[in-house]
Amino acid sequence: MFPTDPDVLVIGAGCAGIAAARELAARGRRCIVLEGGPRVGGRAFTDATGLGLPFDHGASWLHEANDNPLTPIARTLGVELTDHDAIRDRRLFAFGRFATAAERRSFADAEDAFWTAIDAAAHDGAPDRPAAEAAPRKGVWDAAVAHWEGAQICAAELSLMSLHDFAATALEGPNLVTPGGIGGLVARLATGLPVRLGARVDRLRWGARGVTAEGTFGAVTARSAIVTVSTGVLAADAIAFDPPLPVPTREAIHALPLGLLTKIGFRADHPAAPDLPAFAVVRRAASAEEDRPMSWVSRLFGQPSLIAFCGGARAWEIAGDAAAAAEAARQEAAMVYGSRAAAALARPVVTRWAEDPLFRGAYSHARPGGQGARRELARPLADGRLCFAGEACHPRFAATVAGAWLSGVEAARSVP
């Protein structure tokens, strides 16, 4: 299964690493995928044990599905895909109650106004700046929309994000879900690949003559390497590069930090649990800029689940403390659904992306002024002997499995 003299080392068996390995195999290139953890999939991970049903800890949707490279692949495999946008029941909690139809329309208008302002500012010819500076501020829903579009969707507040990158990576629908989870789909795509688990790379020697990866597994040499670990891992110097990476590459890594989105998944099969329909999405409107509510997705495919999404600064504050995260989510549930319904939720599963040393966060955003960092990080080094890939490298589908997949394919095509 493992070539003794590989052409390429792929470091990391997440979506980008899997895509790179598949592309290399299609080109007749021998590779070994070195994965530091006990499983494949990276930040696409579906767990069926904690809740007793499929629960995506990370990637949950195939975004912009009509242009997503994984959509036709999934369909070829016979994977059931459902357009969440077409069937989701959208609910808004505001002013201590669920919003009226007129209020929901007003909120939708505020969302449209938000994106109109963002797009106009991103194309006004002015230098890059924080996305928050372009967001509307005076409307009744503006704080809620800014929190939703920033912390809850992008895993970081708008004040931390490049306006130009934020506008360039905004995605449209359709957004597809699958009963087996996006992580389950990605794991399937690793079948038959030469993946070595528990092989964390501590040092990578690279140059014009080739590469050598070193770790507790020993050392493996090849002509080229594709590194697909997160920018959180790279920024922490968890892999020592010898010689050090060029300054532009290092600057790009630090310009693309990981935000954090924590999910708190509850079983909700008690009769007193919140009475929500399948595929409902519930947002609590922020009452002010300092208010940082969670949002909820309920009963995917009719399963007895209720999943809280906590993003940005609030997620970092409770990182490493699963009990605090669970209690915060239960308090949010009590606020929206009532204390009796919140108490009926079973013990939850809390995702742990922040404290996992193989990830150190959820997905990337560009700092203000870092709008070119994605292309810089994806630029091959040493005539392709060293390439980087992953969601952070893609200038359009950043923060998604699509971006990871496309960047992995591109890196595989760049190695000599």
UniProtKB/TrEMBL annotation:
UniProt family annotation: Belongs to the tryptophan 2-monooxygenase family.
Catalytic activity reported: L-tryptophan + O2 = indole-3-acetamide + CO2 + H2O
The protein's name in its UniProt record: Tryptophan 2-monooxygenase
Record domain Amine oxidase: where: 16-415
UniProt xrefs under Pfam families: Amino_oxidase
EC number(s) reported in the record: 1.13.12.3
Pathway annotation from the record: Plant hormone metabolism; auxin biosynthesis
Key words of the record: Auxin biosynthesis
